[in-house]
User: What shape does this take?
Amino acid sequence: MLGMEFRGYARRKLADLHAQIVRCAGLCSDVQLWHRANVHSNSIGNLLLHLRGNLMQWIAAGLDGRTFERDRPAEFAQRGPLPRGPMLDGLADAAHQADEVLARLTDEDLGRTFEIQGYRVSGLAAVFHVVEHFAFHTGQIVVMTKALCDRDLSLYDEHGRRRDGRAESAP
Assistant: This one.
């Protein structure tokens, strides 16, 4: 029962976060997608590539055994501009594959040990890592979009209620 609730929440959260990323990317110009505040910062474009790689490595390949070769340093080294469509399509495909895997995970899978990116982790820890990681970088993308586009992107009203009426993800 608890495993089912955890998997369901992880799936909803990843879908919500992915929707926020797509919204932000749609508001930015190609130049803004590849803007870096300084040499130590990533661009939104880099984070799109990085999140795709993380989802594929940790969930699709790591938990489900799908074939995926990742070049993590290239995700951050890219200076663009790469076309937004293929980047967003790649992230959407990775999110879809991750959702398929999460939907099929069993409580036994959550308790199993996996070797992912050089770490020995339980299935539960892998899912938790991916959701936490995706949320962290989504927050960065939201902040960068607010700064670059001078827009209020809040999904919540002054009382902390979602503006779109959905109740699944609390702030």
